Amino acid sequence: MSRALALRLEPYFYTAPSLLLIAAIMLVPLVTGLSYAFHDLILLDPLSGDFVGLDHFREMLNDDGFWTALRNTVVWTAVSVALQFGFGLILALLLDRPFPGRGLVQALVFLPWAVPGFLSGLTWAWLFNPVIGPLPHWLHGLGLLATPENILSDPHLALWGPIAANVWWGIPFFAITLLAALQSIPKDIYEAAAMDGAGPLLRFRRVTLPLLAPTIAITVMLRTVWVANFAELIVVMTKGGPADATQILSSYIFTLAFQRLDFGYASAVAAVLLLLLLAYAAAVMVLRHVMTERA
Amino acid sequence: MATITLSNVSKDYGGGPVLRGIDLEIREGEFVALMGPSGCGKSTLLRLIAGLEEPGGGQIRIDGRLVNDVAPKDRDLAMVFQSYALYPHMTVRENMSFALKQRRLPQAEITRAVEGAAAKLGLTALLERKPKALSGGQRQRVAMGRAIVRNPKAFLFDEPLSNLDARLREQMRYEIRKLHRELGATSVYVTHDQVEAMTMADRIVALNDGAIQQVGSPQDLYDNPANLFVAGFLGSPPMNFLDATLAQDGALVVEGQTLARVPPPAGLASDAAVTLGLRPERLALTTPTNSVPTRVDMVEPTGTGRVVHLALGAQRLKLFTMDTRPLAPGETVGLSVPPGAPLLFDPGSGTRVA
Amino acid sequence: MSKTFTRALHALALAAFVAFALFPLFWLLKVSLTPDDLMYGEGVRLWPSRVTLDHYGAVLRHTQFPLFFRNSLIVSAATGLFATAAASAAGYAFSRFRFRGKAWVVGVMLISQMFPLVIIVAPIFRLLSPLGLTNSLTGLVVVYTAFNTPFAAFLMQSFFEAIPKDLEEAAMMDGATRFQALRRVILPLTLPGLAATGGFVFTAAWSELLFSLMLNSSAAVSTFPAGLLGFVSKFSVDFGQMMAAGVLALLPVGAFFLLIQRYLVQGLTAGAVKG
Ligand SMILES: Nc1ncnc2c1ncn2[C@@H]1O[C@H](COP(=O)(O)OP(=O)(O)O)[C@@H](O)[C@H]1O
Ligand SMILES: [Mg+2]
Fold first, then answer.
1. Which ligand is nearest to the CA of B206?
2. How far is B194 from chain C (nearest CA, A)?
3. Is residue B13 within 6 Å of ligand 1 at its C-beta?
4. Out of 3.40.50.1580, 3.40.30.10, 1.10.150.20, 1.10.3720.10, which CATH number does the structure's domain C62-274 have?
5. Distances C197 to A13, A226, C87, C152, C264 between C-alpha atoms, Å
6. Which residue's CA is the closest to the ligand 1 atom numbered 27?
7. Banded pLDDT at B19 (limits 50, 70, 90)
């Protein structure tokens, strides 16, 4: 083999193991999974398997469960990401200035990120349990709850349980990413701004935020997609209940597939979720492009 | 020791040509400087010789053998990087042994070679240190040491001194020259610094915009530059360039004044516009009456002498003199241009015409 | 505002964050140490009047958790190893080569991080079942390695970007092939990055629930999350034992995380500098 050819092939040699694996375990199954959306596919039902075209998508239009889950997905994602981001940014700013013991504090506040998702769910479910958890009593004490009950069994409040767990669990991710971005801002920019007479708030708005904006845009986008897909907390804490009041689309898909065994319909809902997320990601990228063009 | 031959070598990264039609023969034992401004393609040319980049076209030969298809590791060339590229996790000894271990030489031989090179460069006391614990100058020496232990066919240097302060740079210039004399190895030395090129090289290859402008000994390039680029690149303060017309009789007229006379060149139209090049140190001050009157604009003492900025009509020029007479801005002095000093260039193409 | 006041505010805010981060874990630990007879009476006290290790003893002796723990350890360690190896190679290619189709490769890896994984559970089951890779630890390792490689590759890329290209070029001039240069010069310098990436993947594999639940139904090959969830739905009132098991599930990942989190920030910083 000539050296020119060998050099041309070298990058593929390095990427091939990952690519093959991802293609075999993720992409091909994804295509198969999407094709189920157009089939009547019920597990353990030997009569199913016919091609049904867009029937599942028509069915979705009249499915209250789908619309509730869609609404919940928006609330769940928007509230979780906004709170994770807000607190994450504050935490990153607090950690960006040196103080004694910073290494230890940083390790401790980042710890929730290492907690497995299902375990965060279980832990918070226990915290909300009035028998062994303090939260209902505290909320009652603060006058937020009429009686110290488990909010997870109240259809109107239950979604806040998983959201609380999600915020607790997700703050470190934003804090780590934003801290990394903050630490890459050269310090002399701040000094120059301070020499120009800018106070801390102005410096934050005029220097820090614009420099962080690209990181923020990408991180928030990726995280939003991720949180929208993240069903584990809901499955573990409420199983989508009571009475499907806390289903988000991804947990609804899970329920459809593994409790009702309706893989065809579940795949159709998953296809819709995927489309919505791709549209969202594309919109963010376009917006970011427009913003950077103008700046 | 080796000859390196490039024929019609070109390179393009996809954004237009970076090197065009490079023809060059580097002789055995020669010290050649690749000189040119930043971005002109010097490093690319060096990396092509090293095998770190693939040529877009043309042939590269080492000792007559075509090496286009030979990996860097099999070319037996040593390279000293601008960043030194010392392996941070290895001691100085390990850094210098790396290439020899790679060749599976016996341990005793490696030790002997490394310690010999270290002695030559004054690194013996530093052998067990990591690069982090060395000063800039010491790191530079380790980079040199890593190259010389191998006894390679040729040395490639990519601006090896540009991260050192002025004093160290001068000292290393001398040491590299001395090493070259001792080892006699073919060396290709990339630099944007004309002083380095002038003082170190047997021959200079002047490179601009991806093309070779001129190849020759430093003195040759200094005295007989082939074009405006080479003329302007060498020399400090740089050569003066004036817009002039060349009359049929050989008179060089600048701003209505005849500055000098040259033998009338053949083939130039009468009253042709030319660019007149004058080296500041070839010019002399006289009294205004017996030469061209000019006005003093500014005087800069350099220690050895003075650089005098002169205004001649709307044009400016510099003159270097060791004359100590008092000079004040605004004063009118005489400028004398000795015969042989004027160099003439075509203002359009920049090539030398006389 | 005076300097002391700002500093006090800063410390107070950080203390609030630390308390918020640790409180749920503290509660987990507290309940796991509370004796059964005090469980309800002292349910909401900050610390029980008596502590016991009985729950841990029961979990370790009378349940299958030691087995689940071992399974999880095997799966997570193997996944960490394989995913980090594959991701290092890909991340190295991303950082050092320009090649045809690179944008596509990166795009594929990004897309793979965007869709609801639920949708591929059934297809993966159908793919692995005939190969005998369901109800098997190997099957989980294969699946987890695929899931974690993309992000790990981007992480490794940012670690490689922080190492100057000159270094492997110097090694190549010194007689090494690119692969030897990678092994002898670049990888030793990326050790913190490798540790961070490996730890990250280990944690992710340790935490995975859905596929473990769906692909492996036999207890002999259950991982800790699946086992714990099964335990919770069966013995949903035995809080002490559940939480003791929870604490045990947390130990390896918590320890790992405390060791590597410093390098994670470093890796992300390197990436941020670039982009
Ligand atoms: N890897 C590369 N990819 C694209 N362009 C490059 C690359 N390396 C160098 N160039 C371009 O080639 C030109 C010559 O670069 P270089 O040889 O490094 O210049 P010099 O060493 O003379 O300063 C520059 O315009 C540079 O931008
Ligand atoms: Mg260069």
1. 1
2. 25
3. yes
4. 1.10.3720.10
5. 21, 19, 9, 6, 8
6. B39
7. very high
